[in-house]
Design a protein that fits this description.
Layout: H1 16-38, H2 42-56, H3 64-79, H4 83-101, H5 106-121, H6 125-143, H7 148-163, H8 167-185, H9 190-206, H10 209-227, H11 232-247, H12 251-269
Helix pairs in contact: 1-2, 1-3, 2-3, 3-4, 4-5, 5-6, 6-7, 7-8, 7-9, 8-9, 9-10, 10-11, 11-12
Length: 271
């Protein structure tokens, strides 16, 4: 969740009422935007937040209200699959927060992570990596090397390296991510399953089929237990595992998994 920075007094030389009115207008519009977004009315949330941004800019381009509003707009744009607009909003927020807080603040790390995420979603893994690494550096420094935020950005980096076919780079960070998540929540947790699934995909790409097979099996068990037998994430794991088993000549087992995945997909289509 976005943390709204503390608002400091501005326009101290002007009459108090003059300074207060635009601030009140920004607060009202920002709150309305957040409420609409929480209710998943993203179009209305975008309208309120755009108006809030105009009010925030009255205080100057570097004001923290501008940074908070831009970052929140980025989240709303992502929810609407407007990735280019999201990236632009995040970049503007990053410039404000870096100037206000310095490079090593959690606010700056969070925006770097947001930028990396949207770039990754656009398929720009190489461009995403510097932002992900910056976020990782701050998270490790501020929260420690075993924090869940550190794990999240490590998994992102690993998936980026895998997409770029830099497999040796990918394996180390994905294993770290999996280890942190297992240590924090045990084996039976969905985030750990995500990391194990990514490792399985990596091992398939490397031709390490036995390792991939065992990771897919573990991911299937965890996803069935934590997400349910009808979850799309389980269907994805089953489909990829079935494809691996076919390549290994285990057609009977592959067909069984494929049929289960197909049943889950049909169930999704009925909803």
């Amino acid at each position: 969740m976005l943390r709204i920075p503390v608002l400091f007094a501005v326009l101290a030389s002007a009459p108090f009422a003059y300074a207060q009115q635009p601030d009140d207008a920004w607060k009202k519009l920002f709150t309305q935007g957040m409420y609409a977004t929480t209710s998943k009315d993203y179009a209305r949330g975008e309208q309120f937040l755009t108006s809030a941004l105009h009010e925030a800019e009255r205080f100057g381009a570097d004001d923290l209200r501008v940074g908070s509003t831009e970052n929140t707009l980025g989240l709303v744009y992502v929810a609407q699959n407007k990735f280019k607009e999201a990236e632009t909003a995040y970049q503007k927020a990053l410039a404000v927060f870096e100037k206000a807080y310095g490079d090593d603040s959690l606010d700056v790390a969070n925006v770097n992570f947001n930028i990396a995420t949207v770039m990754f979603d656009e398929g720009h893994q190489a461009e995403a990596l510097p932002y992900a690494r910056k976020a990782q550096q701050v998270y490790e420094g501020q929260l420690g090397g075993t924090s869940l935020k550190t794990a999240t950005v490590l998994c992102m980096e690993g998936d980026a390296w895998r997409a770029m076919k830099e497999y040796s780079q990918a394996e180390g960070v994905l294993r770290r991510c999996a280890d942190i998540r297992e240590a924090d929540g045990g084996v039976q947790n969905a985030d750990f399953a995500d990391a194990i699934h990514s490792l399985a995909q990596l091992y398939v790409a490397e031709g390490k089929y036995a390792l991939a097979n065992s990771r897919f099996k573990l991911a299937e068990k965890i996803r069935e237990s934590t997400l349910g037998l009808t979850s799309p994430q389980l269907a994805q794991t089953l489909e990829e595992h079935a494809a691996l088993l076919k390549s290994m000549g285990q057609t009977k087992e592959a067909d069984k998994l494929g049929a289960l995945a197909a049943a889950i997909r049909r169930n999704q289509g009925k909803k």
